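Re: your question from the hallway

Yes, I did run it. Sequences:
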Amino acid sequence: MSALDWAVLAATLGLIVGYGLWKTRGPSNMADYVHGGYRDRWLTIGLAVMATQASAITFLSMPGQAYEDGLRFVQFYFGLPIAMVVLSVAFIPRFYRLRVLTAYELLEARFDLKTRQLAAFLFLLQRGLSAGVTIYAPAIVLSKVLGWSLNLTSVAIGAVVILYTVVGGTRAVNQTQKHQMVVMLGGMVVAFFVIVHKLPPDLSFGHAVDVARAFGKMNAVDVSPSLGSRYTLWSGLAGGCFLAMAYFGTDQSQVQRYLSGRSVTESRLGLLFNGLVKVPMQFLILFVGVMVFVFYQFNPAPLSFNEPALRRVAATADAPRLQALEAQHRAAFVHKRAEVQRLVAALDAGGREEIAAAEARVRTAAADATRVRKEARALIAASGRPADANDADYVFLSFVMANLPRGLVGLLLAVILCAAMSSTASELTALGGCTVVDFYRRSFRPSAPDAHYVRVAKIATGAWGVLAVLFAAFAAVVDNLIQAVNILGSLFYGTILGIFLAAFFAPRLRATPVFVAAILSEVVVFALWLGTNVGFLWFNLIGCAAVLLLSSVLSLGRSRVA
Amino acid sequence: MTGGGETGGASDGTEPRARAEMDDAPPFLTWRAIYVAVLGALAAEIVLALALAS
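Structure:
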């Protein structure tokens, strides 16, 4: 990395961290620490909500996912705008009416303490694990740039984030995220134009899209009704809607973002802004990945984007096999590029049959190149670190480091690190706040001065940060980071959402049937995850429906017994 | 209310939040128009995605 990149990276991070520290002067009570004093306007809330969700994983993993798998991941977000409308109408006014610090407090008002603490426990469990992944993702970046080990890098990033988070409170996080989100969006727009500019000069933008389509990368919508297919229009609308309702409506890391608003109106508008902007933003990030894919149809890509893994294999007895694969990879690329150029020529000529024939030849050439890459992955996996074989999370970073102009590399690294810090900061303050409000203050020490709770919340926040760093050591075993986080969330969110929907819309349901149904529904979801191939987005709907159905059946049984 | 009387700002020693704006109208349009705009934008995005995929 050049001196200019280092300067841009240091200046951007320094300014944002400095601004955050300046804004974090003295949260003196829990309302200040958790909700930032209830002062934020809708644009701040909307951008903070987006920045909390858009972690470093979004910028590292999604372009790589689009590179491998096309645009179909965008369907995951189709249910989100619907969820934002539902939350604005049904959830926000209820949270405001009870003046809750955490979402789970509302459950004690409606049901009982054990139901509240079950939901809070499920949140702590899944969010605590997810925080590990959100620290691990930027560690990939820095370890590549600095040549440090991944674990050491995770510890270094974790330490900075813990310090920043413990010192700060929600208001600082929200205010900082507003600026970070602008930098993130701006950085991706600039990256998009640079990538398009780097495509061959005789390739029009329309033909670049056609080339991507020939490789099946423009598959933004799949209308097949298959439950096993991970991303379809239906799983995106139904499962995605339930996941978004659960994430934004019941996950404290998001609830505390929009409850920091100065009124119901500001909170509602913040969420609806997210609903309006989210799908186009995710589409842009995925489309950047698709354009990186098109770029590598005209320029040689590495055999694996995880280049440290390649270097490691090159130092073993498998080096001759690796060299042979490198040679096959280069030959496959030259052949594929020639076929892609013939496709572009056919597109220029406009004959339908010629285009179809050229597309078929491109697919054959691509299959050959894919076979070589699979063999390389198998070789890397056999070298002792199976997780290194999957290089999807390295695609965008590798492209940025090798192809973007000086200065812009530093800016995009800053974007990724800012995203990591902001989302982790939200997670840790929510984990710390929930631990104190829903467990410590409620069950262990109910009447201490407020300053005591702020101190304990800071300690809890720091402790969760340390745990997240420990979890990060295990994140390398997962194939794709963004999928891992969403699968993890989907295992718990359906149940938590079911409890909240029972609280809001089923006035006859009582606490114990809902509590038992929630535990049973977790068993059902885990059984489906371990024993079937049902797409994970459906777990959100299934978990939620199971809580409502089972609690109704149990209530019926109780009333008959009575 | 929740056990321990511990929800929200009042028990924290802070001023209770002003809740007069609970049913405020939005600063622009109406809530219904805003909801329709958000869902209409989603419908347009799905149509665009279908067109891109075909």
